[in-house]
């Protein structure tokens, strides 16, 4: 709770001769008299902001509010009894506080003073009684009356908002810095972090909750023993046993690499004919959800979503940015890292100078990956309309011939999951075991150009380089679970890429790994212990308000033709939602059933258990072969602080992790909730109608249901967003407006729709009074936009920020805020931003509606 964040110790009085100010130093927090500020707080000095925070904190202790303009400071008496008692808020009241103010205190009230106060109070009441009818009459035409919210939730919210802000800045020039400047100044990145935001802060709290659960031996769930929870706790305990991992993990890695197929980087005597077989090597590693060269799996058929199909996807790079392969510093660091790992796995002393041969072999792998990166299709070049590429089996065979027999590869990969007695009889007359069975399968290839060119690269690459490449891919996947000496080998490269100088604490690493491995089991425990069940019902109301606002505003969409608008109405109506967690988690039997084939040994090491988990999830994917899709399957677990739209289901999903403060709190002004979680909900809804989502109809099947004229108008309007966001610069690089287009459309449309929903909520529910936060001179409309902006407060290293521009489909958080609010006139109206200021430019981009009814 808020009071625990400050220690009310060592209070020192400081008196100034002019008597205008009195200051108290309490653990570095300076309290001064509150100077009335203008509506933007842009002229307040630092001490004024600190005093506002202090007033709020003091209120949390005393449960009654004294107007700061009347009392410049409080509790400055040497006798701290009132503060000590204040820690128990429930037992505190005006009388108890007054009793603890000593007579030596300047706040001691003598008899004469009491008489004067009573007399003045009686006169004031008389005047109020005389003027009240006139006041009420003057406000009869007012729709709303603002009331100050004085609950602990509102006080702590005020403190949080102000702590994140930099109110000395003009919101009309840089709203992100105004809303999040305090966050940037007050937060510190640990040596193991390259960025920090609310999403990470909340997830860390979720991990702390799980930590308190996992370290306890209890394996009961809803009163009965759960084998899945037992496995999760065994997995966690093995991870925490660093002694065993240090002694045995290396041997496990060596065994796995041997089964994979030997490579010259890790053995002295190597023969391409005896020690390495590409087919068997790829089969072995792909079954463990590691994907050198390419990824194969099962996915929903977008055009027929009651069926699933095989897909091939480009994969297998150590770096997610092509530019990394043209950086000589990264090249040198990668060589040193790979050669150091080779030295360790060979059993050489880590202090012995690595052989030049190993450096050369790792360098060959780096150059091989560089060639692969050159044929990778960039995300922004993957046109959503062309992502659905069904290729004939003969064409796919030609891509892999002669370096890989794709018939044998697919058959061996899927053999355990092919129910020959049913599938083959239904789909063909082929005999059992005929590898041409896949001739009849639909195979999806989102990036065909990559596979068309992969053949030529592999044919020109010596086998020993491919063998070393696959082995190094495995090493990099498993390295986080290896002993400290291996982590030290990676440290220089990691530091260069992300400015990370240390690994996370062991407890945090192990809780996170356990949550990733047993996400639904740990999610069930998290829900049982920490999730407010009433949140589901309240969030459901927000979702329906957002949906209604979108549907009601569709007729005003001037660029969309009537037929397309009608179909959009149907699709929006049929969007389903899933909130908090899947219902099947309420039964321990269901959870145990889900994890029944995942076997964890308490006597194993972390590498062994991680390999078991990887194989378990890859098997779960492959066994979908020939099965109907499960519409209730979640791709996120309950503790995740995120949300998503599933186009093939036409469904929006919000895990429990994101349904909590600061994104949602039922006990604070509703404007903040609509600004934060409301905008997130609307963001996901808009994904159903963005440049990618618009290719899926109300039932989740892919086809172009928009009329040509609407498509043309939509595409024309998207150009404005591409141009706008491409002008934003982070460090030395510009945002890619094409890569981030879908997310920018969703951000802009989401805030517009959520603001509309908020305004309509007030009217539809006849809200006569809205809560005003104490100490914040902001209107409800301003709070809405502040709630949206602070959702994206972040502190990050420059390297991490620039790296995100290449790989992240979201714009950098600062420009998610600035780019959105500068396009919304209602924001400028709320903050009275003059035309032509940064946040109220003359040219605005818009696809989805105006934010209010006009």
UniProtKB/TrEMBL annotation:
InterPro entries: MetalloPept_cat_dom_sf, Peptidase_M13, Peptidase_M13_C, Peptidase_M13_dom_2, Peptidase_M13_N. Residues 642-847 form the Peptidase M13 C-terminal domain. GO terms for biological process: protein processing. SUPFAM superfamilies: Metalloproteases ('zincins'), catalytic domain. It comes from the Eukaryota. Pfam families: Peptidase_M13, Peptidase_M13_N. PANTHER family: FI17812P1-RELATED, ZINC METALLOPROTEASE FAMILY M13 NEPRILYSIN-RELATED. Residues 171-582 form the Peptidase M13 N-terminal domain. Belongs to the peptidase M13 family. One of its GO terms (cellular component) is plasma membrane. The chain crosses the membrane at residues 115-136. Keywords: Hydrolase, Membrane, Metal-binding, Metalloprotease, Protease, Transmembrane, Transmembrane helix, Zinc. CDD domains: M13. This is Endothelin-converting enzyme 1.
